[in-house]
Design a protein that fits this description.
Helix content of chain A: under 10%
Number of strands of chain B: 11
Largest sheet of chain A: 6 strands, mixed
Number of helices of chain B: 0
Number of strands of chain A: 12
Oligomer: heterodimer
Radius of gyration of chain B: 13 Å
Distance between the termini of chain A: 41 Å
Largest sheet of chain B: 7 strands, mixed
Structural class of chain B: mainly beta
Strand content of chain B: over 45%
Order of helices and strands of chain A: EEEEEEEEEEEE
Radius of gyration of chain A: 14 Å
Distance between the termini of chain B: 37 Å
Helix content of chain B: under 10%
Chain lengths: 115, 113
């Protein structure tokens, strides 16, 4: 079955530390990949997405992610986090299942950045 | 600007009552989804629709129903609310093509007492 795995459930960092959140998926076909962010008390917002082309994608607020097809991974990175990055981060894969497209979600990673 | 709105934002209801949560989008998207978000479970798909008159069950559909009579709306009905359905509910939409993302509503916090 198709699935998305986020390795870190809770991450605590100090400001200016570097961030890498892991995301692996299981699906052998064509995929679109997403990272969404949910700030406390808010809805999910798109952080960045990969559809095709350059596997290193840049998103908002200094985030980037690298698609490594051979590893079925789409890890999220930020060189220097800020307190305002405290949020829940979700990885998602849009995969074809027959004629349908389904968004498959990871369980999320809670990031707390200490000032 | 196009948007997706949910109402109400907060609701408290009693066990056994029927509850309907509204979701309205002005993106003209074909696809609409309902999720619930619970601590430790992430986002779980309840029901989804790929177009008018189309509805499909997600992974946690028991006790919920949806109907899609037009493009803009996908109301979610809890037939007989249970305490286990206390959760935050999110509606989302996408235009159905492969290379597009989903847009989320602000969420509805439902408490069943």
């Amino acid at each position: 079955a198709q699935s998305v795995s986020q390795h870190n459930h809770h991450v605590i960092l100090s400001e200016a530390a570097s961030l890498e959140l892991g995301c692996n998926y299981s699906y052998g076909g064509t995929v679109n990949l997403f990272w969404y962010v949910q700030y406390p008390g808010q809805h999910l917002q798109l952080l960045l997405k990969y559809f095709s082309g350059d596997p290193l994608v840049k998103g908002i607020k200094g985030f980037e992610a690298e698609f490594i097809k051979s590893k079925f991974s789409f890890n999220l990175r930020k060189p220097s986090v800020q307190w305002s990055d405290t949020a829940e981060y979700f990885c998602a894969v849009n995969a074809y299942a027959g004629n349908n497209r389904k968004l498959i979600w990871g369980l999320g990673t809670s990031l707390a950045v200490n000032p | 600007d196009a948007e997706i709105t949910q109402s109400p934002r907060h609701k408290i209801t009693e066990t056994g009552r029927q509850v309907t949560l509204a979701c309205h989008q002005t993106w003209n998207h074909n696809n609409m989804f309902w999720y619930r978000q619970d601590l430790g479970h992430g986002l779980r798909l309840i029901h989804y629709s790929y177009g008018v008159q189309d509805t499909n069950k997600g992974e946690v559909s028991d006790g919920y129903s949806v109907s899609r009579s037009n493009t803009e709306d996908l109301p979610l009905t809890l037939e007989s609310a249970a305490s286990s359905q206390t959760s935050v509910y999110f509606c989302a939409s996408s235009d159905g093509r492969m290379n597009t993302e989903a847009f989320f509503g602000q969420g509805t916090r439902l408490t069943v007492v």
